[in-house]
């Protein structure tokens, strides 16, 4: 697994000690997230669109309605910038200037293309579902031809990317460590609540095992290990 080579767009200059160009770090962040922001230019204006995404090997995928302006624009080879950011904690320092955020962020550049083969498209949608809910694809009814036609899937090779990560406590000016001011980290994490059944759920249908103690990052780690 080769590292990413920093380019003029991806070379991190500000606080470059937080930079990571290895695929392992990058993929660990991608596999822990759900939402990406896709930046592109349409009709001379910049746009950023939020979308769910998934990764298969060295490619990033996202999908939506075949009528989506973003998807129709991007599939034509328009350069895009895709960002994924995860917030792990709020960092409280002894001065306002040194307050910070613990985070994991990935920035990727490339060109996306539409997945047009029906069998391949169906396979990638299965991978997306299984990424979030391992075992669910076999439970749900099959996708219809009309649903598949109404869905566009885009694929982008992950070739130009940079990851930036901040961890740890605040970094204060040395004299400030003597101040009587609390400092430290307030951890933040997306936690799944108790599943809420559909009011029209058929009686006797049990809660799937994959929703018990749901943890997306744990699923991502298991999937990564299986590749």
Descriptive overview:
With 227 residues, the protein is of the alpha+beta class. It has one domain (16-226): Electron Transport, Fmn-binding Protein, Chain A (Pnp Oxidase, Chain A). The protein contains five helices and ten strands. It has helices spanning 23-32, 69-74, 118-132, 145-149, 216-226; strands spanning 19-20, 35-42, 45-56, 59-65, 79-92, 100-111, 113-114, 151-157, 160-166, 184-187. Strands 1, 2, 3, 4, 5, 6, 7, 8, 9 and 10 form a ten-stranded antiparallel beta sheet that branches. Strand 3 and strand 4 (59-65) form a beta hairpin. Helix 1 (23-32) crosses helix 5. It is globular, with a radius of gyration of 21 Å. The two termini are 12 Å apart.
Draw up the topology in text.
Layout: E1 19-20, H1 23-32, E2 35-42, E3 45-56, E4 59-65, H2 69-74, E5 79-92, E6 100-111, E7 113-114, H3 118-132, H4 145-149, E8 151-157, E9 160-166, E10 184-187, H5 216-226
Antiparallel strand pairs: 1-9, 2-3, 2-5, 3-4, 4-8, 5-6, 5-10, 6-9, 7-8
Helix pairs in contact: 1-5
List keywords for this structure.
single chain; 227 residues; alpha+beta; Pnp Oxidase, Chain A; ten-stranded antiparallel β-sheet; 10 strands
Mean pLDDT: 91
CATH-level-4 superfamily name: Electron Transport, Fmn-binding Protein, Chain A
* Unreliable stretches: 221-227
Radius of gyration: 21 Å
**SSE pattern:** EHEEEHEEEHHEEEH
Task: Please state roughly what percent of the residues sit in beta strands, choosing from under 5%, 5-15%, 15-25%, 25-35%, 35-45% or over 45%.
Answer: 25-35%
Named at the architecture level, the CATH assignment is Roll
DSSP summary, beta strand count:
10
> Helicity, in percent?
10-25%
CATH class: Mainly Beta
- In the CATH hierarchy, the third-tier topology is known as Pnp Oxidase, Chain A
Give the CA-based shape.
Answer: globular
The tally of structural domains comes to 1
Number of DSSP helices? 5
Distance between the termini: 12 Å
Helix-and-strand structural type: alpha+beta
Task: Report the major sheet.
Answer: 10 strands, antiparallel
């Amino acid at each position: 697994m080769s590292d990413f080579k920093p380019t003029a767009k991806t070379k991190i200059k500000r606080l470059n000690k937080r930079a990571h160009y290895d695929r392992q770090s990058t993929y660990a962040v991608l596999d822990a997230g759900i939402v990406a922001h896709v930046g592109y230019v349409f009709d001379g204006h910049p746009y950023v669109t939020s979308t769910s995404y998934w990764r298969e090997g060295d490619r990033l995928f996202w999908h939506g309605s075949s009528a989506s302006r973003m998807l129709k624009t991007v599939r034509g080879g328009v350069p895009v910038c895709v960002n994924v950011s995860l917030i792990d904690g709020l960092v409280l320092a002894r001065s306002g200037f040194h307050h910070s955020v613990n985070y994991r962020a990935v920035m990727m550049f490339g060109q996306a293309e539409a997945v047009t083969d029906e069998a391949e498209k169906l396979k990638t949608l299965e991978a997306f579902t299984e990424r979030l809910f391992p075992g669910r694809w076999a439970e749900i009814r099959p996708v219809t031809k009309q649903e598949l036609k109404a869905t566009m899937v885009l694929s982008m090779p992950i070739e130009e990317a940079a990851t930036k990560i901040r961890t740890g406590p605040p970094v204060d000016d040395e004299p400030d460590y003597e101040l009587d001011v609390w400092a430290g980290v307030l951890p933040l994490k997306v936690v799944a609540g108790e599943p809420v059944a559909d009011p029209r759920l058929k009686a006797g249908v049990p809660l799937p095992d994959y929703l018990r103690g749901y943890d997306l990052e744990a699923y991502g780690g298991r999937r990564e290990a299986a590749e």
